[in-house]
Design brief:
By secondary structure, this protein is mainly β. It has no helices and 18 strands. Strands 4-6-8-10-12 form a 5-stranded parallel beta sheet, with no helix packed on it. Strands 14-15-17 form a 3-stranded parallel beta sheet, with no helix packed on it. A two-stranded parallel ribbon has the order 1-2. The mean pLDDT is 97.
Length: 221
Amino acid sequence: MVLPKNIHTIHNSAFRDNIIENLILPNSLTTIGNNAFEKNKIKALTIPTSIKTIKKGAFAFNNISTLNISTGVEKIEEYGFFRNKTKKLEVPGNVKEINYRGFAENTMEELVLNEGIEIINESGFGANKLTSLVIPNSVVKIGPRAFDLNKIKTLVLPNNLKVIEVGTFNVNELESLVIPDSVTEIKANAFTNNKLTKVSLKTGTVVDPKAFDAGVVLEYR
């Protein structure tokens, strides 16, 4: 489906629950409403630079395997790309905030988060297949369960992060971990169900008794 070049707005649920496989969005488009293309069969998608916000559930429940996010997008609202088939994704630094389940339950194996991203909210990338992850230093908040139910083996945390929330990296495959000096608190189940045997962290960090699996050695520095 090719939308007219002079269209500016697609309203809430406008094309929801159809069988659209191919979609080309014009550069004139400035607003895509909530659930606008939810429950289709879209395979590939390029977001034009004119779009600043991906609204709630706009492209949820599709088959998007190739996704190009433009340098205009600043925010992904909840369920924006929930339950698609995106295996590789690069999120540009102009995207400041990714909200609840924004990219959850895809088949994502590779993820590049560029410097500039600030907030990854609850379950943002949960239930994917990520094996490695570098979170840029611009990120100041990572919500509960943001990366749970993945296959992460290597992890680099940002130097400005203060709190690691409940279940953030629960059910992964981490074997080693260094907690940045900026972190002051690690909450329950943050790193449970991994393969950790020891963790390096700053003296004085408040650690919930259930933050790690039993037997994990905390090495304070």
